[in-house]
Design a protein that fits this description.
This protein is of the alpha/beta class. It has helices at residues 34-47, 64-71, 91-104, 125-143, 181-190, 201-217, 236-246, 252-261, 268-278, 309-321, 334-344; strands at 8-12, 51-54, 79-86, 109-115, 148-151, 156-159, 174-177, 193-196, 223-232, 285-287, 290-291, 304-307, 326-330. The protein has a single domain (8-229, 312-348), classed as Alpha-Beta Barrel (TIM Barrel), CATH 3.20.20. Helices cover 38% and strands 18% of the residues. The strands form 2 sheets. The protein has an 8-stranded parallel β-barrel with strand order 1-2-3-4-7-8-9-13, surrounded by 9 helices. Strands 5-6 form a two-stranded antiparallel sheet.
């Protein structure tokens, strides 16, 4: 069995203290350090993954922008999908940072937009996402080499683009996720790739249809991504056993404490993951190969594709047919599962970097 049309296949580097052998049991060897996270990225690069997500958490882990700069001369082919927290930084400075890192990467930078609060601030969803839309617009204009004279609800900017530019002279692609009405409007207006956390395929199609309509109403179009975990073994029984082992030392109180650490723990996306988990069977399966156990000890993407190589590939094909263009996968421990997926599944996937001309941002 082989995959369908080309999709982007990406891995995940656990910069936010999110690597375990047993969920909820900290391991000093798996904490987010330069060496540990570097090794995950180099493993993904060596195996030929197209991209790797570098997450950002204010309270957890290590700084991802500094990490990306350090990784640039060490990687050969893989792109870096750098999470950038909107609202926390001065936009012209972000533009200069992104252009610099893209040059260091020889054009291999992509950006994961995070609609975050400022540290110590809590802004309601609608104004927070409006601020993100304005920030994305100004950032895109500057990275495309255009001067900006913009007066919005949250930003007031009049500035020339930085002298330094990206390798292409254009902005990197913006990846973005969020399920609240305000998040969907932000994505429809300004994102290039709309990321979904795992759910049943009918829900994926439902969200995609809604986002297609919202983007079209703004004269834009979107590509779609899927962010989940994966557990692949030679047989389905072995994969399910690995899933059970991953949760074997977790207690409910520890899992709840881990989930609450994340700044997105109250988001609509997290609520959807909780709903998926609540509707699963006694072993945590929302469908035969979609296991929600990861969400018992993790905020955010809370499910994994579980099965033998053919079953995992079939699930990826199912999602590809549903319109997914990019996959961002991870597993526990991240380097070990990267190795397994790369040996069992990746050679059978028709994959390549996601390349397309993005629509203009509609900030109106």
């Amino acid at each position: 069995m082989t995959s369908l049309r080309p999709v982007e296949m990406s891995w995940f580097s656990a910069l936010c203290d999110d690597d375990y052998e047993f969920l909820g049991v900290p391991d000093p060897e798996l904490l987010s350090t330069w060496e540990h996270c570097r090794n995950i990225v180099l493993t993904a690069d060596r195996y030929g993954f197209d991209n790797v997500l570098l997450p950002s958490g204010y309270q957890l882990g290590i700084d991802n922008t500094a990490f990306a700069a350090g990784m640039a001369p060490l990687t050969n082919n893989i792109r870096l999908l750098l999470a950038v927290r909107m609202g926390e930084l001065v936009v012209p400075q972000v533009a200069r940072q992104m252009a610099t890192i893209d040059q260091m990467l020889q054009g291999r930078l992509t950006i994961n937009i995070i609609s975050s609060d400022l540290p110590g601030e809590t802004l309601d969803s609608e104004p927070r996402y409006r601020r993100s839309t304005e920030t994305m617009y100004v950032l895109r204009e500057l990275l495309d080499g255009r001067a900006v004279d913009y007066r919005g609800d949250h930003l007031s900017v009049k500035v020339d683009p930085p002298r330094i530019s990206t390798v292409s002279g254009r902005s990197p692609l913006f990846y973005f996720g969020g399920l609240s009405p305000a998040a969907r409007e932000c994505a429809a207006a300004a994102a290039d790739v709309f990321l979904m956390w795992p759910n049943t395929t009918d829900k994926v199609l439902e969200v995609k249809a809604d986002m297609d309509a919202r983007a079209a109403a703004k004269g834009r179009s979107l590509r779609y991504g899927w962010r989940s975990h994966v557990i692949v073994r030679e047989s389905e029984d072995q994969a399910r056993a690995a899933a059970r082992r991953l949760l074997s030392r977790l207690d409910a109180e520890t899992g709840e404490a881990i989930r609450k650490k994340s700044l997105d723990s109250g988001s609509a996306g997290v609520a959807a993951q909780t709903q998926l988990r609540d509707g699963a069977d006694d072993e945590g399966y929302a469908d035969r190969h979609l296991w929600t156990g990861v969400g018992r000890a993790r905020s955010g993407a809370g499910a994994a594709i579980v099965g033998d190589p053919d079953q995992v590939l079939a699930k990826i094909n199912e999602l590809t047919e549903a319109g997914i263009d990019a996959f961002i996968l991870s597993g526990y421990p991240h380097a070990a599962e990267c190795d397994l997926f790369a040996r069992y599944v990746l050679p059978h996937i028709n994959h390549a970097r996601l390349e397309f001309e993005p629509s203009s941002i509609n900030v109106s």
